Automatic annotation (TrEMBL), chain A:
Keywords on record: Cell membrane, Membrane, Transmembrane, Transmembrane helix, Transport
Domain of life: Bacteria
GO cellular component, one term: plasma membrane
Domain ABC transmembrane type-1 per the UniProt entry, residue ranges: 48-232
Species annotation: Comamonas testosteroni (strain DSM 14576 / KF-1) (Pseudomonas testosteroni)
Name of this chain's protein: Binding-protein-dependent transport systems inner membrane component
Subcellular location(s) per record: Cell membrane
Membership in a protein family: Belongs to the binding-protein-dependent transport system permease family.
Keyword Transmembrane: yes
Lipid bilayer topology: Multi-pass membrane protein
Pfam family, one: BPD_transp_1
UniProtKB/TrEMBL annotation, chain B:
Name of the featured protein: Sulfonate ABC transporter ATP-binding protein
Family designation: Belongs to the ABC transporter superfamily.
rRNA processing found in the keyword field: no
Gene3D superfamilies reported in the protein's UniProt record: P-loop containing nucleotide triphosphate hydrolases
Domain named ABC transporter: residues: 23-242
The keyword Transport appears for this protein: yes
Pfam families the record matches: ABC_tran (PF00005)
Single Gene Ontology MF annotation: ATP binding
UniProt keywords, alphabetically: ATP-binding, Cell membrane, Membrane, Nucleotide-binding, Translocase, Transport
Length: 252, 267
């Protein structure tokens, strides 16, 4: 029960000890207490919740658009050989472009408002969901499909009862991975001339040489990423409760 | 006493070339690429008959079953499947060696697959196969034998006219296999239908069937009709004799086949 907390506790203790005892200069690495003060300062400034809210809404909007597009494209390609032939090669070529390399183009084309940030997050999310959905559908057990056909299931029923549930473990892996990419993309996207958001908090702190605020913002990203991952895992345990591996993990 | 008729009497053939039998195959052939798996199969299986297909691996047993099931298309020949109910298409259900239960659906949902409206009948079948109390369990919590019981219940819920069994008990331990065979006959009493069983187990074929077809190189090498009530008592002395005879025939066939292959290779 406590095992997963051992390493964070040891790191925090080392950090506290090394900074308060003077081993590491606090101007290089502020102590956890200084970082906690910075957090309190942000809280009382009333900007903290606004920044978190803005970042969260950006990641939610970008992630939703990317995930839905990935699900739709992945399902279309997974279910139809024609769609596969038509779309897959183009999508795979687009996938090889690092989406963060598009930042300068996005600014030139779309300006510096919310659109390029949300679009970047959506692009980062789309491909992991697309690939895992398409391959999940293609790898559904052919014997189960044969059984379904021999029991008279229509194409619609086959998709609903066999193909989508069979592809679900792979789809959820894609969504979970995509969520990590979404947060990573947000960090970069929020450095594009932002006026708010956690990324803006970091940019601002850098200009003011406030390392404590930068570290606090990094911790915020880590916490938000961990919470999002936890949420997806809960969905996995619920949706995949038929799978003994997930049942056991959920029990733990 | 098990008496054997070396082959069954020919069924009455109608004008269209088919008989009124449950399964009527005419000159059926099947090839995968250049490999001919079945050739010139003529077969009539009467309503209510329990037919076992035996033969060495690769003889075409499962392919023949899959053709009857409609899971594969014939390369040549014609086939007709008939229901004892006039004007109704024959209802066919297959039970495979693997249970093929959907792991994400409960036992009850699996059994009512394609027939959700038949839940009361499904619950009754579950009781009959000894799975009461497992309705809401997922298949992963069941043993191999229980999964096959669920698969049998699923096949019978549709009240099939023809039940096709593709080595359904092959992966089970000896005790569970015998108990499943007995259960199958219990269930067939309430849901009578024509049964075609593919098996590697000669004893299983002798105990369960009215008729045994021995397949060899894609053709029916022997068509044996066994007299007497089924399922047969395993303690019967002539059952062991018949089993030994069949195994012997298969071995002789195997030896002849190998000799023929050696001759053609040296030529």
């Amino acid at each position: 029960m406590l095992t997963p907390w051992i390493i964070p506790f040891v790191v925090l203790s080392l950090w506290l000890f090394s900074t308060t005892s003077g081993w590491i200069d606090q101007s290089i690495l502020p102590s956890p207490i200084t970082v906690a003060h910075a957090a309190y300062e942000q809280w009382t400034n009333n900007t903290l919740w606004t920044d978190i809210g803005v970042s969260l809404s950006r990641v939610l909007a970008g992630f939703s658009i990317g995930m839905l597009s990935g699900l739709v494209l992945g399902t279309a390609v997974g279910l139809s050989q024609f769609n596969h032939d038509l779309l897959d090669r183009s999508l795979q070529m687009l996938r090889t472009i690092p989406h963060l390399a598009l930042v300068p183009l996005m600014i030139l084309w779309l300006g510096i408002d919310e659109t390029p940030r949300i679009l970047l997050v959506a692009l980062g999310t789309l491909f992991p969901v697309y690939i895992n959905t398409a391959s999940g559908i293609k790898n559904v057990d052919a014997k189960l499909l044969e059984m379904g056909k021999s029991y008279g299931l229509s194409r619609k029923e086959l998709i609903k009862q066999i193909i989508i549930p069979g592809a679900m473990p792979s789809i959820l892996v894609g969504i979970r991975y995509a969520l990590g990419v979404a947060w990573l993309t947000l960090v970069i996207a929020e450095t594009i001339a932002s006026r708010n958001g956690i990324g803006y908090m970091v940019q601002n702190a850098r200009e003011l040489l406030r390392i404590d605020i930068i570290i606090f913002a990094i911790l915020l990203y880590a916490l938000a990423g961990w919470l999002a991952d936890w949420l997806i895992r809960q969905i996995e345990y619920r949706v995949l409760r038929w799978n003994p591996a997930y049942k056991k993990a959920a029990g733990q | 006493m098990i008496s054997i008729l070396s082959s069954r009497q020919n069924a009455e053939i109608k004008e269209d070339g088919f008989s009124a039998c449950a399964v009527s195959l005419r000159n059926i052939g099947k090839s995968f690429g250049h490999r001919q798996v079945l050739q010139h199969i003529d077969l009539d299986i009467t309503q209510g008959e329990f037919v076992s297909l035996i033969g060495p691996s690769g003889a075409g047993k499962s392919t023949l079953l899959r053709l009857i099931a409609g899971l594969e298309a014939c390369s040549s020949g014609r086939m007709r499947l008939s229901s004892p109910v006039p004007e109704r298409a024959a209802q066919i259900r297959v039970m495979f060696q693997e249970d093929r239960l959907l792991p994400w659906q409960t036992v009850l949902d699996n059994i009512t697959l394609g027939a959700r409206e038949q839940q009361p009948a499904a619950l009754e079948l579950l009781r009959a196969v000894g799975l009461q109390g497992h309705e809401n369990d997922f298949p992963s919590t069941l043993s191999g034998g229980q999964k096959q019981r669920a698969a049998l219940a699923r096949a019978l819920l549709h009240r099939p006219d023809i039940l096709l069994l593709d080595e359904p008990f092959g992966a089970l331990d000896a005790i569970t296999r015998v108990s499943m065979q007995l259960l199958l006959f219990d269930m067939l009493r309430d849901h009578p239908c024509t049964v075609v069983l593919v098996t590697h187990d000669v004893e299983e074929a002798v105990v369960l069937s009215n008729r045994i077809l021995v397949l060899r190189d894609g053709d029916i090498a022997r068509d044996l009709v066994l007299e007497g009530a089924i399922p047969r008592d395993r303690g019967q002395a002539d059952l062991a004799t018949l089993k030994a005879r069949l195994i012997n025939e298969l071995l002789v066939q195997e030896a002849l086949h190998e000799a023929a292959q050696a001759t053609s290779a040296s030529a």
